[in-house]
């Protein structure tokens, strides 16, 4: 082929031979590697394919085989990278696409061309630029309309668009062609073709990523209908279930998307997938993320609170316990369900939700996000229920929470939720004792000291210390290590009303329960700080708390509040 560049016959049969050796031979893989590695010594290599396409450009059969050879070679990522060192393959293929545009006899060639280009589009941004400059997006969109009922071509066109959409500039150009509507119609009209459905879903997912414009154009009854139908089909492969859930998840980031999806039956469809694919981790992760977005958008709350739904969710947490994603999403869902419903969370408690959230903490102690969501969920679940508090403590939650304080000393959001949970339960002697026994007091003090810029954490940590010393004066000595942090924070944040209230109340409680604490507050200029709180025109709750603390400090001897 290299010696007879002008011979149409040599080029044609050379391409046929290479195609046969790289695709049909028993040694196809080694032959592909040999072809890819040739030419490094200055001799002929894969460049003979490009030259053959130039010589035989009016022979559609040879051009098709050349495109299929590129398609075959580029299916290997390493070989695709080698091909990407030159723009010749891209422009050679696109010259053929432009030459045979809309010609019925070139449908198979166009399919092979898009298959090869889709593989090359996976490799580098450099390829994206070359492909965009070659007009591939326009060609692909026109081909979908020009080649009627050619499902194989549609598959490769969707794959090409999916890979091209990874680049923001490409994505905008694709969207300008109304690609979302076109791809959605393909899904609707060719519901029997699983491969086309998968590539169409991939294309929509790529387009929706980081694009509100794309998401809003996909939020339609037609798109959701196709996706939910795939979820409801028991024969759908797990890859299809994962992609369908992922697309629902992406679109439900928008409130409009979550509401429409739920109205179309998405909650039940996703729950069904969670049941039927209980052992499929990737499916469960995508499904739980979808339900998380629904719950965060306050969509489908009542459906998700149904006994069957809660049992499915808790069962998934138990069955895929090793997945941080599943545990994180599930804790977030439970938290949102409690916060956004007026009902008591009895269905969650009865399904073992409290115990499972504690297990999630114990299994993923290294994840600050899981611990934050878990503490938030437990905080909501146990609020105003002594029985649920006892259930939580009996599951080992206190040790898990104090471990969270140790494991994540510089993550204020995690620490804030942990302190909030402790503040909710530490007004009872049994639970206060459990917190003290697990070194919780010193851990709270340390968290406050290390995160003095987080007012929410300081407020909740201060509330924990106050509640503990009121339950048992013996805890005052250990809690007194937080006095300097409280006073310094009061000095630095004079306008923070909620914190000032809790700080004044905590100093009042500490002074009332311990002479040593009283002396420490006075020594740290606490009286002046409390006087400042009185003089700052704060609301009555701050005034009352500051006045109480000052009066307590003025007393001689011990005494209660």
Automatic annotation (TrEMBL):
InterPro entries: ARM-like, ARM-type_fold, ARM_LRRK2, Armadillo. Keywords: Repeat. Residues 134-520 form the LRRK2 ARM repeat domain. ARM repeats lie at residues 265-305, 352-396. Gene3D superfamilies: Leucine-rich Repeat Variant. Pfam families: ARM_LRRK2 (PF23744). It comes from the Eukaryota. PANTHER family: ARMADILLO REPEAT-CONTAINING PROTEIN 6. This is LRRK2 ARM repeat domain-containing protein. It comes from Cyclophora tenuis (Marine diatom).
């Amino acid at each position: 082929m290299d010696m007879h560049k002008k011979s149409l016959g040599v080029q044609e049969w050379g391409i046929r031979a290479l195609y046969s050796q790289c695709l049909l031979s028993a040694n196809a893989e080694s032959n592909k590697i040999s072809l890819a590695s040739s030419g490094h010594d200055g001799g002929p290599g894969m460049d003979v394919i490009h030259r053959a396409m130039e010589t035989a450009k009016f022979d559609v059969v040879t051009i098709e085989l050349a495109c299929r050879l590129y398609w075959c070679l580029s299916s290997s990522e390493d070989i695709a990278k080698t091909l990407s060192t030159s723009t010749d393959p891209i422009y050679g293929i696109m010259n053929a696409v432009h030459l045979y545009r809309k010609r019925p006899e070139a449908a198979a060639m166009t399919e092979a061309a898009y298959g090869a280009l889709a593989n090359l589009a996976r490799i580098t941004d450099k390829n994206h630029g070359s492909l965009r400059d070659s007009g591939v997006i326009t060609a692909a969109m026109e081909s979908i309309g020009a080649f009627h009922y050619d499902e194989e071509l549609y598959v490769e066109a969707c794959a090409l668009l999916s890979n091209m959409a990874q680049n923001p500039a490409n994505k905008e150009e694709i969207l300008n062609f109304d690609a979302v509507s076109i791809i959605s119609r393909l899904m609707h009209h060719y519901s029997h073709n699983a491969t086309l459905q998968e590539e169409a879903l991939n294309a929509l997912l790529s387009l929706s990523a980081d694009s509100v414009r794309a998401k809003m154009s996909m939020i339609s009854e037609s798109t959701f209908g196709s996706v939910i139908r795939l979820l409801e089909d028991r024969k759908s492969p797990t890859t299809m279930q994962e992609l369908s859930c992922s697309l629902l998840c992406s679109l439900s980031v928008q409130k409009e998307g979550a509401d429409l999806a739920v109205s179309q039956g998405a909650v039940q469809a996703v729950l069904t997938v969670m049941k039927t694919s209980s052992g499929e981790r990737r499916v469960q992760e995508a499904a739980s993320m979808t339900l998380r977005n629904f719950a965060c958008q306050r969509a489908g709350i009542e459906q998700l609170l149904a006994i069957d739904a809660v049992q499915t969710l808790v069962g998934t947490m138990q069955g895929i316990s090793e997945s941080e994603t599943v545990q994180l999403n599930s804790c977030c869902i439970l938290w949102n369900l409690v916060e956004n419903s007026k009902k008591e969370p009895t269905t969650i408690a009865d399904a073992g939700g409290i115990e499972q959230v504690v297990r999630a903490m114990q299994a993923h102690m290294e994840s600050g996000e899981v611990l934050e969501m878990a503490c938030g969920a437990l905080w909501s679940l146990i609020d105003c229920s002594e029985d649920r508090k006892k259930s939580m403590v009996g599951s080992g939650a206190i040790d898990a929470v104090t471990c969270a304080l140790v494991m994540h000393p510089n993550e204020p959001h995690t620490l804030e939720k942990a302190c909030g949970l402790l503040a909710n339960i530490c007004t009872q002697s049994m639970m206060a004792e459990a917190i003290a026994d697990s070194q919780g007091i010193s851990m709270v003090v340390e968290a406050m000291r290390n995160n003095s810029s987080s007012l929410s954490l300081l407020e909740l940590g201060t509330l924990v210390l106050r509640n503990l010393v009121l339950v048992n004066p013996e805890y005052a000595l250990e809690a007194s290590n937080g006095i300097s942090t409280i006073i310094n924070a009061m000095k630095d944040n004079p306008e923070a009303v909620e914190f000032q209230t809790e700080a004044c109340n905590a100093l009042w409680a500490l002074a009332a329960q311990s002479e040593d604490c009283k002396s420490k507050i006075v020594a740290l200029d606490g009286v002046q700080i409390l006087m400042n709180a009185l003089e700052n025109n704060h609301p009555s709750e701050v005034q009352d708390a500051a006045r109480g603390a000052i009066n307590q400090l003025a007393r001689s001897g011990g005494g209660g509040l």
